[in-house]
Amino acid sequence: MAGDESGGGFVNPKRAMKRVILYSQPGCPPCFAAKAFLQSRNVPFEYKDVQADPVALEELLALDSRSTPTLVVGGEVMIGFDPERLMALLED
User: Fold this and answer.
1) Residue 30 domain-assigned (yes or no)
2) CA 91, CA 52: separation in Å to the nearest integer?
3) What CATH number should be reported for the domain holding residue 31?
4) CA 50, CA 22: separation in Å to the nearest integer?
5) Residues 4-20: pLDDT tens digits?
6) What is the pTM of this model?
7) Is 25 helix (H, G, I), strand (E, B) or coil?
8) In 1-92, which residue ranges form alpha helices assigned H by DSSP?
9) For the chain, what is the mean pLDDT?
10) Rounded CA gap, 85 and 92, in Å?
11) Whole domain around residue 53: which residue ranges?
């Protein structure tokens, strides 16, 4: 919708994209929701499975997180999935 500023749309492709990392694990519904959210908005991201990748788990712990999903957007850490906050981090 033109003029829709509700945050439900796509990220502006003309802006420089921030690096996005999603720390996830199998069987985590909020992780699946975060992944679907990013994919539906054509946001490129790095997916790290903390259960299968010990290095990813070490990185997660270094972020002071023990929870998935944990997202890093341009250096900002978000623990848990909050669509509005994630969109704000992507658009900043």
Assistant:
1) yes
2) 31
3) 3.40.30.10
4) 10
5) 444 455 555 555 679 99
6) 0.83
7) coil
8) 29-40, 54-62, 83-91
9) 88
10) 10
11) 20-91
The token duo for 13 is 């492709």
Residues 6+ apart with CB under 8 A from 74: 18, 19, 20, 89, 92
Residue 35 identity: K
Residue 47 β-bridge partners: 22
| CA dist., res. 89 & res. 72, Å (int) | 9
Residue 3 has pLDDT above 50, yes or no: no
Instruction: Say if CB 87 and CB 7 are below 8 A apart.
Output: yes
Rg (CA), the chain: 13
- Token look-up 């848990």 returns 80
Does the residue 45 lie in any domain? yes
